[in-house]
Every structure is written in structure tokens, then in C-alpha cells.
Amino acid sequence: DTGVSQNPRHKITKRGQNVTFRCDPISEHNRLYWYRQTLGQGPEFLTYFQNEAQLEKSRLLSDRFSAERPKGSFSTLEIQRTEQGDSAMYLCASSPRDAYGYTFGSGTRLTVV
Amino acid sequence: SQKIEQNSEALNIQEGKTATLTCNYTNYSPAYLQWYRQDPGRGPVFLLLIRENEKEKRKERLKVTFDTTLKQSLFHITASQPADSATYLCALGGMDSSYKLIFGSGTRLLVRP
Fold it and tell me: What's the rounded Cα separation, in Å, for the pair A111 and B36?
């Protein structure tokens, strides 16, 4: 297993378009997290899955954002009707249990023009 | 309000010296605290975890302390090297029933040869 994989690495989209990102976690890890990071800031929590169940969502996750993890494997994060304020690095991480270090992917950098 | 504070100014030190980074928090009760390293354009990489009942943790040239009375963690890199130059993030976890980590904004470390 080569770690957490995120695709695409970069995405440029026009305002108002929909985008979808994919995350493939480490296969043995049942916990999967999505974070968003802007320049000079730490990662901000968006949502958390344990297996296929979405157990926690941030208030940052407006109704334009949706995340899924079908069958408890890979996960997708979709942003509908993108806005310039959505421009950020979207990070996915996985871990095998609580109180354990996260393994992050390299992120998807989204630019909304 | 809840806050995690890390020095926003970069820490600039000479190779071979010990780097000390600070993480202070208010209005949180973490069960554990983690430190991550992040290089530009990459996802964070887990370094160390310390629990609330532990005072100190070491790993090779790294040392972390955790003082729940002061609500502070110190992160030390001894015999620093230019390759240690990166941004270092602290993250709080195990709070209430939440499953997520809350990250500070990070401190950039520059080690001069």
C-alpha cells in the first residue's frame, strides 16, 4: 500500500461549475477525514467517515458540499456551484483508530476562476 | 472562544541548534495532542502523539512536552539540520465525542546551514 492517494492533484474550474475529488485511503484504515487548507492556515475539518458511515460534519460543509464513502473504501467530495471562496487545498487523511496519527494524501488544489 | 495559537512568525535558527516551537490552546480539553510536519504543496506528515497523562515523549531528535495545566505543548528538534526546514503544525484530539483533530495554523522553521 503506497499511502493515501488523491486525484486530481490540481483542478481549475469556472465559478458555478461542479467539481468532484477522489480519495483512496490506506486499505486497512476504517477512518477517513476531509480537511480544507488555505494559505498560511492549518487544515480545517470538513467531515469524517467511519467505514461507510458519515459520523461528523463541520458547519463549514454547506449544502453545496457533499461527501460519500460507498462500501467504506474510497471517498468522493463534491462541490456544487463553486465559488471563488472555495479555492483551497482539499486534504484527505485516514487512520486505523482513534488517538492515532493521520496519514494525509498530497491534496487536491482547487482554483475557482 | 476556542483557540490554538502557534507562532505565526518564522523561527530562524542555525544548523546544530535546538529548535523549540510552542502550541498554546484555550477552551479545549484534549485527550491527546499531535505534531505534524508540512512541506510546501504537500499534505502534513505525522510526527508524534502525546496523551494528557504523559509529560514528555521522544523520538530520535524530536521531543514533545504537554502541560495540561498551562494548556501548552512544546516541540523540540535537537541538532537541527537544513532538512528540518518546514512548517510544523500542532493538533488537538479526543475532545468530547468528536473524532476529529483541530489544527493550529503552524510555525515555519528555517534552519540555516
Answer: 25
Q: Is B64 at the interface with chain A, CB within 8 A?
A: no
Q: Cell numbers 487545498 label which residue?
A: A89
Best residue in A45, A108, A109 for a mutation probing chain B (most B CBs within 10 Å): A45
- What residues of chain A lie within 8 A of the CB of B64, using their CB? none
Q: In terms of CA atoms, which chain B residue is nearest residue A97?
A: B99
Number of H helices, E strands in chain A: 0, 11
Q: How many residues does chain A have?
A: 113
Write the residue in B94, B102, B105 that is nearest to A45 by C-beta: B102
CA-angle at A54, arms to A50 and A57, nearest 5°:
120
B83 φ/ψ angles, rounded to the nearest 5 degrees: -65, -15
Q: Which residues of chain A have pLDDT under 70?
A: 1
pLDDT tens digit string along A23-52?
999 999 999 999 999 999 999 999 999 999
Question: How far apart (Å, rounded) are the C-alpha atoms in residues B60 and B42?
Answer: 23
